[in-house]
Amino acid sequence: MSQLDRIDFEIMKQLRNNARLSNKELAAIVGLAASSCLIRVRNLQRKGVLTGYHAEVNTKALGVGLQAMISIRLQRHSKADVESFRSHVLSMPEVREMYHLAGANDFLVQVWVRDPEHLRDLVISAFTAREEVAHIETGLIFEHTHSLELPVYVELEEEE
Questions:
Q1: Span 23-53, pLDDT tens digits
Q2: FRET partner for 116 with CA separation of 20 to 30 A, picked from 10, 12, 42, 82?
Q3: Is the sign of the CA dihedral 97, 126, 140, 57 positive or negative?
Q4: Helix (H, G, I), strand (E, B) or coil at 39
Q5: Helix, strand or coil, per DSSP, at residue 108
Q6: Residue 22: pLDDT above 70?
Q7: Is the sign of the CA dihedral 27, 32, 33, 37 positive or negative?
Q8: What is the C-alpha separation between 75 and 107, in angstroms, rounded?
Q9: pLDDT tens digits, residue range 62-112?
């Protein structure tokens, strides 16, 4: 993958903040001609740097009344058990994100549920009932925010 420059990072930052920007608006913000900006965006997509766009959704509009993080420790760490559990977790509509971890816990799963009863039923039926699971711990999410900032760990190329 060829190196990125300051303008590439600014394009990514702006699109992370508002993926609905028109190419003309984006070009004006980053200081490029619209045609040059479009070429850069398409190059970032082609290279796999920009991998997709999404819409933020108000969870309450979907009937989500509670969010939780569930930490799971497996009994064994065989490839078959890990893959079986992973597939099971990803098949559940309540699961928003899943992390496979190193450390005391093997998985961290973010879920969206209607209410405490829905969470209890999900934990019992989808997690504690699984033979791969040795231990679970559930934490309620009071607030969820994420940063739009992009860390820069690569040396930026000089602009053309």
A1: 999 999 999 999 999 999 999 999 999 999 8
A2: 82
A3: positive
A4: helix
A5: strand
A6: yes
A7: negative
A8: 12
A9: 999 999 999 999 999 999 999 999 999 999 999 999 999 999 999 999 999
In this prediction the pTM is: 0.81
Three-state DSSP state, 141? coil
CA–CA dist 4, 11 (Å, integer): 11
Helix boundaries (H) for the chain: 6-17, 23-30, 34-46, 79-90, 116-122
Q: Which tokens hold the place of 26?
A: 């984006």
Q: What is the DSSP letter of 70?
A: E
Phi, psi of 118 (to 5 degrees): -60, -40
What distance, in Å, lies between the first and last C-alpha atoms of the chain? 17
Task: Report all structural domains of the chain as residue ranges with CATH numbers, in order of start.
Answer: 6-46 (1.10.10.10), 59-140 (3.30.70.920)
Which residue in the block uniquely carries the two structure tokens 């990125």? 4
Query: How far, in Å, CA of 36 to CA of 11, rounded?
Result: 12
Do 133 and 142 touch, CB atoms closer than 8 A? no
pLDDT of residue 146: 83
- Residue 156 is predicted with a pLDDT of 76
